[in-house]
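Need the bound structure for iron/sulfur cluster, inputs here:
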Amino acid sequence: MCIGVPAEVMEISGEEARVNVMGAGMTAGIVFVPEVKVGDFVLLHAGQAMAVIDRTYAEESIAEWRRVLDGRDEFLY
Amino acid sequence: MDVMNFYTDPAVIRSSVEKVKNAARDFRNQHQRVPVIMEVCGSHTMAFARSGIKTALKDDVNLIAGPGCPVCVTDQKAIDAMIGLAGKQDTILCTFGDMMRVPGSRRSLVDARTEGKDVRVVYSPVDSVTIAERNPEKEVVFLGIGFETTIPLLAMAVRKAERLNLKNYSVWMTTKLVEPVLRTLLDSGEAEVDGFLLPGHVSVVSGEKSYRFLTAEYGLPGVITGFEPVQLLSGTYKLVRMLREGKHAVVNDYRSVVGQSGNQIAQSLMTTYFTFSDEEWRGMGAIPASGLVLKEAYAAFDAKRRFNVTVPPQRKTACRCGEIIKGRIAPEDCALFGKGCTPVNPVGPCMVSTEGTCAAHYQYMREE
Ligand code: SF4
Ligand code: SF4
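Answer from helper R.:
Posting the output first, comments after.
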């Protein structure tokens, strides 16, 4: 029930935005993410964007995990 | 490689599984037993089962499901009350789709709808406000279940109804909070858990900080993790490594989505509209201050205060969902599993919810 889906923000007007969820367009509330900009990715939950998804962080965590898998970096925390 | 492709790449998954197994074997050599990890969130339970990771790890890591699916922990009485409300004239009852088939004492909301009651499934609580706006001659009640992920959306719905000055809209609050239930589980001594995989989406709202009590007061580690196979494995690996090294921190392995302090706007909306309440958890009983209800100032939107609903006495079933959500037994230990209770004909909510442990085991883990 609380699963979120990623969506791309296409257009913003007031408290709502047009977003693209895996190819389908829909309207979502953006009250919880006032900092959101067109082109950002957000996590949608039941019609509201709950967080802006940070691509850089995601890419960093992949790079980190790749090092772990290669046995090159065992330092995690 | 794109972010999404990495998270689901079969080669990466295979080597990740090996990493986890190796770390878990070190733990087993140290402790002569496998590590026990509770995944608090039902979506994690489902994702572990669906991806085959739970089966792949079964000899090395004991993954047990926790109380983190709002559908599974909703008390029978709440469903009975909803069926009672749906029976009132001029009432439209709105709910999330997941709740439709949850059995109450005798019937589910699907049964009520089949009998001609106006029960509607909405995608968002705000949609139920729109229904109220369009049907001024009807009372519209939303069945407000959920954890921290969903509670801010209930606040949004009330805020909208307030702005529209609606007189025919209310929410039947039956919400649940993660921290009180984890504390109750740990204080009871019933859960023998070495560490937690913490719910990624709840944490979007409550933030990394909200789990500090686990390490500070219980000396247990936790990792906040996402839902893709590699994210599940990365989180599990980090947790098992901490266990192997005797460390207990809360690690945020989902930083691209979850922040330190969570979503401040969601938290402040929650404090504006809601106050703590003692909530009944299915199979666990009442837990003090484990949920949120509307404050006195918003009594006009509180279905519990507006409607006097009496519920019939509870009927006992052999369903063992209470023990399932406490991590005490596996679904296979329930005599009804796969026999009297299946997704088509569920006896308990753990078989109904798309994130329910029994449903996950039934769909993905049965040995034919
Ligand atoms: S989705 Fe929400 S409700 Fe369902 S199990 Fe997770 S935290 Fe849970
Ligand atoms: S198998 Fe069915 S009856 Fe048994 S615990 Fe799970 S939901 Fe309840």
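Comments: The longest helix of chain B spans residues 10-31. DSSP finds 18 helices and eleven strands in chain B.
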